[in-house]
Amino acid sequence: MAILTTSKFNQYKKLISSLPPSLETSTLINEKFLVDKDEKKNLEIYYAPFEYINDHARVIIVGITPGLHQMKQSYSTVIRLKDEQIDDEEILHEVKKNSSFQGPMRKNLITMLDELELHKYLGLNSTSELFSTASHLVQTTSVIKYPVFYKGKNYNGSTPDILKTEILKKYIIENFAPEIVRLNHPLIIPLGVNVSKVLTYLTANDYLNSASILSGFPHTSGGNGHRHKQFAENKEEMKRKIKLYFEE
Q1: pLDDT at 129
Q2: 10 Å Cβ neighbour count for 81?
Q3: What gap in Å lies between CA 242 and CA 128, rounded to an integer?
Q4: Which of 29, 195, 215, 218 shows its CA 20 to 30 Å from the CA of 140?
Q5: Bridge partner list, 60
């Protein structure tokens, strides 16, 4: 377990710790935390401390990008821990546990993973334990590590096209690809078609082995009205792939 080599936490830690706990949106979506932007594409990328990596993870769950809610959760965790006598690695681990796929999205994710019986292969009672006592078994991440906003709203991976937009592709190649290659061939669970598209691209460019990717898993956001149908259509094939992966 470690901090990613590309981490900017040293640069932003004091600034985040000095913020009031109320964390208004205008405090976060602010020039102080802007790390990159493309004015022509109406894209802005802001810092959030999602830079912890679990080198021994057996499962990696991949989203598109943290949203504003996850960003607020991550900052709140840093502020809450600012007076604790713990090192940066522990702080960033707590950020991961408290902020990754927070809210209804996490609940939907756990329900689906339990239906696929993933917990049985990991020796757990439920995959809910991946977000508590069994967090050492999972790496949660995003193809773009920092929160991305399109026209001021959470970026969904579609508009603009994630692989045809240079600023986004740069973060995929320079940040996400080295992170996933560093791990020891975990089972990769892509949340939705846009994440799957990125993984297909990385597979075609020899970063990944497609045998470890659980294709067909839907995005678990409550806003994805097709998630139940997509899950039902792909459920048996995903169960088969999980069985094959763990019995290799």
Answers
A1: 94
A2: 16
A3: 18
A4: 29
A5: 139, 188
